[in-house]
TrEMBL record:
One of its GO terms (molecular function) is RNA binding. InterPro entries: Nucleotide-bd_a/b_plait_sf (IPR012677), RBD_domain_sf (IPR035979), RNA-binding_reg (IPR050886), RRM_dom (IPR000504). The lineage of its organism: Eukaryota, Viridiplantae, Streptophyta, Embryophyta, Tracheophyta. It comes from Selaginella moellendorffii. Keywords: RNA-binding. This is RRM domain-containing protein. It comes from the Eukaryota.
C-alpha cells in the first residue's frame, strides 16, 4: 500500500509517493542493515535533521560516562573553578572536581570534569593536552570499559573502528635533564624540549608552590621519536648554563 505524501507548503514534496509503514514495518526494514550502514544513515540523518540530532544527544547524555572526563597532571594549587573555566571553552560543564587526600585535603594531581552534553566532551578531547596553571595536563574519558565506552554505538562511520594505537613503553619516552638552573622556569624548559616532539607530561622537577627548579627536570614525550631527537645532542644551554640530558631509565 502507498499513500501520496502531503504537499509541502513550498511545493517540494508534492506528488512524492511514500510507503505507508508503521513502526513495526520500519524495524523490519532496518533488520538487514549491518552496524556500519546504520551508523552511516544515522550520521546523515543527524546532519540533515536537527530533531534527529537532538534525540541522539538526549539518548547518549543519559549515561554520565559519555560526558565525564578524567584529567591528570594537575598542579597542587589548581582549583575546581579553574578546571571548570578551562573546559567550559569546549561546552557547558555540569561539574568539575579536584580529587584530594582525605587526611591532608591536598590535591592528588587529578580530577574529573562532567559536561552537560557528550559533544562538549568530544570537543575537549580534540586537544587532550591542555596547559592549566602552567602545567601540561592530559584528559581522556573517565570510563574506558566496553560497556560504557563513548561512541561505541554511535560512531559515524561505515568502516570498522581502527585498532587502538600502540603506546610505547614510558622508559623509551622519558628523559632526565640534569643541572637545571634554580632560576629557570618550567615554561622555559618546556619551550626548549617541545621543539623535538609533543610532550605528554612534564616538565617535572619544579616546586609546586614556588615554581622554583629542583635542579633537574623529567620530560615524557608522546613517542620515543621525540625523546630520540632530544638526545641527538645531549648537551643543551638553558639560561646560560649547560645541562645534560639522558633517558631517565639510565639513571
Amino acid at each position: 500500500k502507498k499513500r501520496k505524501a502531503e504537499e509541502d507548503p513550498g511545493g517540494d514534496a508534492g506528488g512524492v509517493e511514500q510507503p505507508d509503514l508503521d513502526s513495526a514495518d520500519v524495524l523490519k526494514l532496518l533488520e538487514p542493515l549491518d552496524r556500519g550502514a546504520m551508523h552511516y544513515i544515522l550520521q546523515i540523518s543527524c546532519l540533515q535533521h536537527p530533531a534527529v540530532l537532538e534525540e541522539v544527544r538526549r539518548y547518549v547524555d543519559r549515561d554520565p560516562a559519555h560526558r565525564k572526563l578524567f584529567v591528570r597532571g594537575l598542579g597542587w594549587d589548581t582549583t575546581a573553578e579553574t578546571l571548570k573555566g578551562v573546559f567550559s571553552q569546549s561546552g557547558e560543564v555540569d561539574e568539575a572536581v579536584i580529587i584530594r587526600d582525605k587526611a591532608t585535603q591536598k590535591s592528588r594531581g587529578f580530577g574529573f570534569v562532567s559536561f552537560k552534553h557528550m559533544d562538549g566532551a568530544l570537543r575537549a578531547l580534540k586537544e587532550p593536552s591542555k596547559r592549566i596553571d602552567g602545567r601540561m595536563t592530559a584528559c581522556q574519558f573517565a570510563s574506558t570499559s566496553s560497556s560504557s565506552t563513548p561512541c561505541s554505538s554511535i560512531t559515524p562511520s561505515i568502516n570498522p573502528p581502527p585498532p587502538r594505537p600502540f603506546i610505547e613503553d614510558v622508559s623509551t619516552r622519558k628523559i632526565y635533564v640534569g643541572s637545571v638552573p634554580v632560576g629557570t622556569s618550567a615554561d622555559k624548559v618546556l619551550a626548549i624540549f617541545s621543539q623535538f616532539g609533543e610532550i605528554a607530561e612534564g616538565p617535572l622537577g619544579f616546586d609546586r608552590s614556588t615554581g622554583a627548579s629542583k635542579g633537574f627536570a623529567l620530560i615524557i614525550y608522546r613517542t620515543s621519536e621525540g625523546a630520540r631527537k632530544a638526545l641527538l645532542d645531549p648537551f643543551k644551554t638553558i639560561d646560560g648554563h649547560q645541562v645534560h640530558c639522558k633517558l631517565a631509565a639510565e639513571g
